[in-house]
Structure formats: structure tokens, C-alpha cells
């Protein structure tokens, strides 16, 4: 352990970590980043195959974005956003209203993904309070949902590892068994799917709609659940159900927005518009915390009144509408346009699929699922029964450590090894990424 690592462990508590693990596996001290790579203080490179927790789009230390920040910081670094505004926020809001699915015309700014989810939940609740339906107080999420770590966001999450201990503190939400395509209980495949599993949601909504204000969902890909990919038909049916029962549909596109799934927004795959959409992560191309909550005019209208009627949304975060974050987001949208990113990603996505294909013969690779720039290998103990490895074996963690040794930052979710690289990844990098995943899987599980 070097001096910096020793000091780090003396003072710092790292996220989502058992700190005791760091005794045998101390944190890697980074010095810089460039393109798809991170470099430690000894000069060793790590291919960032997970876009640093799914945030980075155009590589580390991207020249265009660096310049946009430099320009903005010379003008205005930050200012209070109540009663004040600035061009970067206005430009961003206007462009997002045009870019996002139809009807999402108003933007509320927050400063990270979880806070965007909190805003979305509060907005929906308050809307119904103010629209004469005060009994609508409960939220619905699907199994293995993940929407962040703050208490309301955890309440609509369904991953025990993150929320089990906090259950006494959480809101009383409904959980509907959601799509489980690899182990489909209806015996369908993603290709033959007609969205039968919506029946679980339908039962809850038809029985309890009077007390339900919103359904929240990660469209097309449930990230933290292990990049579980499901067909758009589920979202189409969900949209219809929400309309039938006067329930808001909140699309959490924090992880899947900005091209990750091959479309600018994942809702486009199902051709639906949610009532509320949460965006963060790729919004600032991986540079800074910022988030947006997009909503319909109808929702906005329910809060618009004389002050004394007390219908305003009294919510704020200190860094709301941060000008540097907004300037980065605008430059990121310029890059999407100038460099035809969505089109080019189709080629990258195909290369990843081609390169992964031989790995499907490995006895422990259950399936490879992919949508756009998200790809995931699910490792299983037994291919026939699809039985997974015991979580205590920490298969993902072992593979993570081996891959790091070989210079690739893969960070498996349980038994799922996934690829979610920055869009600037090239063919050689793809070879390194998949080749190393293969090496690590074989080194740990055998051929
Ligand atoms: N929703 C989804 C779908 C996410 O993937 C995440 C982060 N992984 C969040 C919400 C929370 O975002 P943040 O970490 O910025 O709070």
C-alpha cells in the first residue's frame, strides 16, 4: 500500500463498499483520464468499460467539453436559481423540451439522480393533492427496480442489498412482479413476447388505483438489477394502464437516457411519452452532478396559482441549475448532433455483439443481452436450469479484480458482467474489453 492509499483509508469511506475489503484490495489512485481510459499514478491504464458508473459519454477529459467548461467558468460558475436565470439553463431547457418525448415541455432542475427521483415522486403526489384526489398517496414500482439511494428513492427500489435494512424507514409502496425475460415464467422469449407479465401490474392498479399516484420504471433496461432488458410492449401496456386509472407514469431515464439504449431516450423504443421523466448521469457527459425532471404542461399547471393559495412546489437544491453543468449538457448535445453519435453507436454496438458471440459457448454464460450500448453477460452455475451462483461466492467481485489486473474496469453486478463503455470506444478497445472479460471469466470459473 502506498502513502496515498494509506491516507485514503485513514480518512475516506468509499461508496457502495465494505471498507474491510480495502485491506486486501486498496483503492487505485487515479491521476488522469483520457478517452475511454483512466490512468493511475504509476501510469497503469484501465479501460473504463462501465463509463464510471454509467455517466461518461464521450470519454474522459474530452477536449470539447473541457473547453465549454473553461468558457463558462470565466463567465459564471454558479448563482442562485430562484428569481435568477442564465443562458446555459435556458438553452438546455429549450433543447430538452424539443428532444424528449412529446408533451414533456417543462423542466425542473435538481442536482443528482436520486434527487431527481425525489422531485418526481413529490411532484406526482402534490399534483393529486391539489387536483382533488388526496387519497392518491402511494407509488408502484416493479421487482428489482432501482431508483437511487435517498429514502423515497429507496422506497420505490426493490433490491434487498440496498434497501432491506432501511425498510422500517421507507414509504409503503406497491411492488409488481416485472419482466424477467431470461427466466420468463410464461415461457416466451423477447422476440415472441406479447407483454403477458403486465398482468401483475394490472392487478395492482385495478385493485388500488384510487390510492396510487404514480408508477415509476426504468424504461427498457433495469440497470442495477443486472442490466435486465425487456421489450417495449411492456411499456406500451403500462402507459395504457396508467391512462386508464389516472396514474402518472414516471420514466427514470437516469441510466438509459442520452443514447445508451441506441435511441436518445429509451421510451422511444416503445413510442411512449411518460408524464414525468428523470434525467441525470449522461446529461453532463459524466462531468458533473446535475439532473432534470421533465414534465407535462398539465402537471405544471396544477401548481400555477396565486402565491397565497399555497400550491407552489417549494423544493430546491443549492446547486439547482448550475451554469457549468448546463453548459456541459449543451455542449454534449452539440456533440450528439455534430458527430452523429446515435448512428455511429450502431456500428459499435454491432462490434460488441460480434466480439462477444464466441463467449456464449462458455458453460457458465447463460445469456448475452444487449440493447444499443448496453450489453450484459449473465453467468450461471448451470446453463440448463439457469441457476445462478450463490451471492456469497462473490463471483462478480472476483472477476472484477482479475479484470483490473489486466487493465479493464469491469464492475459486475452480482453474476452479471456488463459492458457500458463511453461512446468513444474503438475496435481495439472493444477487443481488450471483451477479451479481458473472457480471460477473467475463464481464469475464475475455468474454461
Ligand atoms: N435511477 C437509476 C435508474 C440509476 O441507475 C441511478 C444511479 N445508478 C439513480 C437513479 C440514482 O442516481 P444518483 O446516483 O445520481 O443519485
Describe this protein's structure:
The protein has 15 helices and 16 strands. The chain has 447 residues and is of the alpha/beta class. The chain has two domains: 3-61 and 340-445, Aspartate Aminotransferase, domain 1 (Alpha-Beta Complex), CATH 3.90.1150; 75-338, Aspartate Aminotransferase, domain 2, CATH 3.40.640.10. The strands form four sheets. Strands 4-12-11-10-7-5-6 form a seven-stranded mixed beta sheet, with helices on both faces. Strands 1-2-3-15 form a four-stranded mixed beta sheet. Helix 4 packs antiparallel against helix 12 (323-338). The radius of gyration is 22 Å and the shape is globular. The model has no long low-confidence stretch (mean pLDDT 98). 4'-deoxy-4'-aminopyridoxal-5'-phosphate is lined by residues 112-114, 117, 146-148, 218, 223-224, 252, 254-255, 280.
Overall, the morphology is globular
Strand numbers in spatial order across the main sheet? 4-12-11-10-7-5-6
What is the tally of beta strands? 16
The helix content is 25-40%
Q: Flag low-confidence runs.
A: none
Write the layout of secondary structure elements.
Elements: H1 3-11, H2 21-24, E1 30-34, E2 37-40, E3 45-48, H3 51-54, H4 63-75, H5 87-99, E4 104-110, H6 113-130, E5 138-142, H7 151-155, H8 160-163, E6 174-176, H9 198-208, E7 212-217, E8 221-222, E9 228-229, H10 232-244, E10 248-252, E11 276-279, E12 291-296, H11 297-301, H12 323-338, H13 341-356, E13 365-371, E14 374-379, H14 395-405, E15 408-409, E16 416-419, H15 427-445
Parallel strand pairs: 3-15, 5-6, 5-7, 7-10, 10-11
Antiparallel strand pairs: 1-2, 2-3, 4-12, 8-9, 11-12, 13-14, 14-16
Helix pairs in contact: 4-12, 5-12, 9-10, 13-15, 14-15
Bound molecules: 4'-deoxy-4'-aminopyridoxal-5'-phosphate.
